[in-house]
3-methylmercaptopropionyl-CoA dehydrogenase
Amino acid sequence: MSYTAPLKDMLFNMEHLARIDEVAKIPGFEDAGLETAQAVLEECARFNEGVVAPLNVPGDLAPSSLKDHVVTTTAGFKEAFKQYAEGGWQGLQHPADFGGQGLPKTIGAACGEILNSANLSFALCPLLTDGAIEALLTAGSDELKATYLEKMISGEWTGTMNLTEPQAGSDLALVRTKAEPQPDGTYKVFGTKIFITYGEHDMADNIVHLVLARVAGAPEGVKGISLFVVPKFLLKADGGLGERNDVYCVSIEHKMGIKASPTAVLQFGDHGGAVGYLVGEENRGLEYMFIMMNSARYAVGVQGIAVAERAYQHALAYAKERVQSRPVDGSVKGPATIIHHPDVRRMLMTMRALTEGSRAMASTAAAAYDAAHHHPDAEVRAQNQAFYEFMVPLVKGYSTEMSLEVTDLGVQVHGGMGFIEETGAAQYYRDAKILTIYEGTTAIQANDLVGRKTSRDGGAGAKAIAAQIEKTEQELLAAGNEDAKVMGERLGASRKAFLDAVDFIAAQAKADPNAAYSGSVPYLMLAGNLVAGWQLGRALLAAQGLQGKGADEAFLKGKIVTARFYADHILTRIPGQRDAIVHGAHSVTALAPEEF
Amino acid sequence: MSYTAPLKDMLFNMEHLARIDEVAKIPGFEDAGLETAQAVLEECARFNEGVVAPLNVPGDLAPSSLKDHVVTTTAGFKEAFKQYAEGGWQGLQHPADFGGQGLPKTIGAACGEILNSANLSFALCPLLTDGAIEALLTAGSDELKATYLEKMISGEWTGTMNLTEPQAGSDLALVRTKAEPQPDGTYKVFGTKIFITYGEHDMADNIVHLVLARVAGAPEGVKGISLFVVPKFLLKADGGLGERNDVYCVSIEHKMGIKASPTAVLQFGDHGGAVGYLVGEENRGLEYMFIMMNSARYAVGVQGIAVAERAYQHALAYAKERVQSRPVDGSVKGPATIIHHPDVRRMLMTMRALTEGSRAMASTAAAAYDAAHHHPDAEVRAQNQAFYEFMVPLVKGYSTEMSLEVTDLGVQVHGGMGFIEETGAAQYYRDAKILTIYEGTTAIQANDLVGRKTSRDGGAGAKAIAAQIEKTEQELLAAGNEDAKVMGERLGASRKAFLDAVDFIAAQAKADPNAAYSGSVPYLMLAGNLVAGWQLGRALLAAQGLQGKGADEAFLKGKIVTARFYADHILTRIPGQRDAIVHGAHSVTALAPEEF
């Protein structure tokens, strides 16, 4: 099943929602306007549609395999990654100082979606490498930067994140891997790390592991964790590859999905100790790791959008081809393609609305990131930083949860054929399920949203977003047409429900934390639904404004109908979520653990 | 992971919701009271927990395989099925005249749940056989009954349903398999059938295929379809197995789940014609097949409940064992088992509430079936038949859709471990997805609900159910306690939303069929949610009535909290569904097929 990147939608979002013209006013991004975006996206689409997407099914059928500590990836992956590197794609968002292209996230995130739609498993290798690059850029010494960054940004070497241990999944306080200081300033690292994505593979010459470990004598808990670079191959004085370091892959997991992506168990230090280099200062590892995680969380949210888009395209193609039964409205006499049946349209519209809504949200968040990091005005940076930080758990949590709904509907549109592996729809269903788990489960995103992003400032940041939404409502209500009016009204009801939830959570977070956190995931889903709907409300206004002016009318109609569908069918879920959060907290914990 | 049948919950439902004491007043069911139910269920649990459940994972790892037209099932399946047959389980609900036990569906459905929780793939063989038995009982000639029923009811032979063809999935009007009358009164059958569950296997001596085909010269469409018995082995005059019939398995599907269950492509008549025996009259095949389908639809709904229960037990065990992070309420200093975290409890309670609600609905529906078929009073039969017919799409559609949510949460509770196949949670997620598809997709159930069950009588049947629900609300509101009051209020709001939807659908079904059918699946989900909640409302009242009277207080508390949770978190979804149905119909079909 081929894939076609949704360039029109991406460029529409960049132009009208993310306001790439504003991004291009930021020093350093002067060349990163809409034209650049279009050129980059077209090239990105060409490469991924042609080279990466065709490897998606082969990767599922012939996953990575392990023999004698060596992981062999699916045939074709190595060559495709070489092309990916040569095309400069790994360096897209990274600084020109180290060989990158220095493009804004506003463009980079869209490229990330295309890559992930093409092949979720393949895309994980660059995704993790991006995170490792960001951590080194922020916290690495000049020497570490000089040693590693150029090779990583060029795609010659890849990066990994080593957090999880068997007893320490989400709870990094339990990390036991240890690092012993050596007289030469290096450390020797000992321990076992699990769930290491692309922890071992044959696609690059070296792998730069970023590893959380405890230095002997460090405080207990998360305040005693440090971050180390542990390369697979040590480097010679001339920077060339030297000795094999003492880190080995001892097994890879047998997973439900993303099978081509090797998930490694890494053993550090079984042969004398793996040589590690401290990143930044001792005991600040978690802080640095959060840099990687924040980058990765956003990127995993984009994975949700990506797999949803792919599932939608797959289902749509089937719905336009499969002939079954007569339409209820009599529009066709005799059997018709199933897209004529209202419920098939409902499923396709749901898939499309959730995907486009999440994409619009992610695009706006990306622009905020760019302003937060690069805008010359400190006040603008701070505002955008606050907005972006509120968005990260929504992009990660909502976009991935919605991808489960979308990939389920994708199978459902196919009927019995959807359950047969050869059809391909089932792979998206299996692949997507990891997205709500890794880089922090939905509950962990929701805890972040409830704790750091909502209750810590008494709901002020959340309410500032609500105020922005209210402005869009007013524009919609003033537009004088039914679609805009309905969207405005539904957004209004949804925003009020959001404020009820914010008030409840802000009030209860300390008074009755169980009550606040019992509604954490429903609150995340409510907020994500609202913000995605808000962006589609803005999109609706923009599309209506463009009608009759020579733009692509079919695209504009699709956007307006999709936004209206979102208002009718997705925003309507919000008041019930509010009721569950505000009135349903007690019944969540009314049974004590021992009463189950 | 072991499985323990939820006997307390099943017996509670039978006693207080299904009113098995009333069932036992029906002639023929005098011995089928609560004591019998308990004895049967305990024996059923013992057998399935011990023999069938341990084969669930092996069936996933080593599915059925095909070689030279012969399907070999997973090691152990054949022996387990022999024990199943010897235990009399295949005959549980079938008439004593043919060697069955003649128990009511009220008991049989619970046994079905236990079998399916133990092993969804294994259970499909008896499930399909049950359907074939019912079709023969209703429409078969005395000769066909005498020839086949005893062996099928004893479990020596199994049965299949042959509907689907490559071009005819849900649309049976497109069936092309043909049947040519022979001078001896038999027919020769030619054609290809796909998706035939247990269409070939090694667990029984003979397989009795029930096959839809067209007799030469029959009318076009569904009115020209006849039903035939096509046994794998023809019978000798003495009833013993004779020649191999001309029906062969040419391939089995590679599926996402229920892998142990062979899904066959059957080729009829490639070597001169498969001998078939007409069931009932020519051209009435679809009518007879609906008998099988109605039986099977209810049974597939029970499969949803079954896999949800199994996923719940699996997740609960993990949540009680896995230690991660400190509880937000400070109840434990340091890392605690994850069941202490509010969101894990929310997930477990959601799983439990959806499962118990669906089980309560199915149990009540089963009792209605028994009264509809066996009650001496024609008026009582008619009332119960109407109720049961309304319930079938809900039991099938709602229970299976909820099983997707539950099995997803089951993986989610496990975090990263859930995505690793060895953990076992992923299998439920993969297995469950077929349930919303086979025996009629959710959309087909919803069309049945909208068309035959709601709009045909102008909503009268639906409103009669709403009136019954209103009585329960009044009892709840009169109970004088918070849990009952909240449940009563939420049920009231939900019932009103249901009535809005019924009015809309009844009004639009002819005026604007696209509008009515655009909301068909949301309407099914709304109605299922309401009816399951209603049954939990009744359960809440019953449980409160039993408190302090020497019953199992822990069970009663669990039931009350679960019902309250359902009111707070599941019934609250209903008003939004109403809004989508009543106000959102237009946007579903606003984009024409060619505009996608």
Summary: Chain B touches chain A through 97 residues (CB under 8 Å).
